[in-house]
Design a protein that fits this description.
By secondary structure, the protein is an alpha/beta fold. It folds into three domains: about 70 residues, Winged helix-like DNA-binding domain superfamily/Winged helix DNA-binding domain (Arc Repressor Mutant, subunit A, Orthogonal Bundle); about 100 residues, D-Maltodextrin-Binding Protein, domain 2; about 80 residues, D-Maltodextrin-Binding Protein, domain 2. It is built from ten helices and twelve strands. It has a five-stranded mixed sheet. Strands 10-7-11 form a three-stranded antiparallel sheet. Helix 1 crosses helix 2, helix 1 crosses helix 4 and helix 2 packs across helix 3.
Length: about 290
């Protein structure tokens, strides 16, 4: 019986690189996570694509996204790494329970951490990103529990994992000294995948211009503090340095659902404790 030629075996190092690209959204960020140069990451990606005979990722305005072939590769790649980890456990190299991989939108991370300690966060690996990035991690399998805003782009794959949800009122926010010049378009600070403000202004027939775009809540707050424009934020997250904008030219914004999601096969005491804390903190009317 002949074995598969060595050049047709996919090394686990390349599998880890492919998963890192998917999780971080770019080759450069994957390289930083793995301690590799972007050239090395690119070479590994090219190698596996040559082996498989097709592209694994495609470029998007927000980074990279898996192709249909890439989604299958990611699914099988995670299985390969899980099988590898299980095999190592047979030899006694398992260090104990696997950590809970928790993804939370940057909108809510500060509120969450205010109520946490080193003890309550033990055994938890946190990922903070915009809601679309957290949803992607949940779907791709590298996040176990997620707290994020609902998004039409996330699709049914996320809706099937929802544990709790609540309506999140959104309001317009500005600096205390922001003034719109007469006749000027409304300057907006947006985040990737956001169409809430644009949709509301378009419906009203108002003109606007996007002056800042970031997935990071704290970066958006800092930009708002400079007075360059307006943004939509959950009412509960408005910092003292900013105020709710109630100018006549601003249309009302629809509420957005905040979702608490978890993988279906996640049944551990630690996961249940985290879900209870999140439910009490972010999903209980108060």
């Amino acid at each position: 019986m002949h074995g598969r030629p060595e050049h047709l075996i996919v090394p686990l190092e390349i599998v880890r690189t492919v998963l890192a690209i998917s999780e971080t959204g770019s080759l450069s960020r994957a390289g930083k996570r793995l301690g590799l140069s972007q050239t090395a990451v690119s070479a590994q990606l090219k190698r596996i694509q040559n082996l498989l005979g097709g592209e694994i990722f495609r470029k998007t305005p927000n980074g990279t996204a898996p192709t249909p072939l890439g989604k299958m590769v990611l699914n099988q790649g995670r299985r390969m790494l899980e099988a590898n980890d299980q095999m190592l456990r047979l030899g006694g190299t398992d260090k104990g329970p696997q950590p809970i991989r928790f993804g939370i939108s940057t909108l809510f991370v500060e509120e969450f951490l205010e109520h946490e300690t080193a003890e309550t966060l033990a055994g938890i690996v946190m990922y903070t990103e915009d809601s679309l990035g957290i949803a992607k991690g949940l779907i791709d399998g590298y996040i176990d529990i997620a707290c994020m805003l609902d998004s039409s782009e996330a699709g049914a794959e996320v809706s099937n994992l929802v544990v709790r949800e609540r309506e999140e009122p959104f309001v317009w926010v500005r600096s205390k000294d922001f003034v719109l010049s007469p006749g000027a378009p409304i300057p907006l600070l947006t985040w990737p995948g956001d169409d809430m403000m644009v949709r509301a202004l378009t419906k009203k027939g108002s003109t606007y211009t996007i002056v800042f775009n970031s997935p990071d809540y704290h970066a958006t707050v800092r930009a708002l503090e400079t007075g360059i424009g307006l943004a939509a934020l959950p009412k509960r997250t408005i910092p003292p340095s900013l105020v709710e904008a109630k100018e006549y030219y601003l249309p009302a914004l629809r509420p957005v659902k905040t979702l608490l999601c978890a993988r279906r096969d996640l049944e551990t005491p630690q996961a249940n404790k985290l879900l209870r804390r999140l439910s009490e903190l972010l999903f209980t009317p108060g």
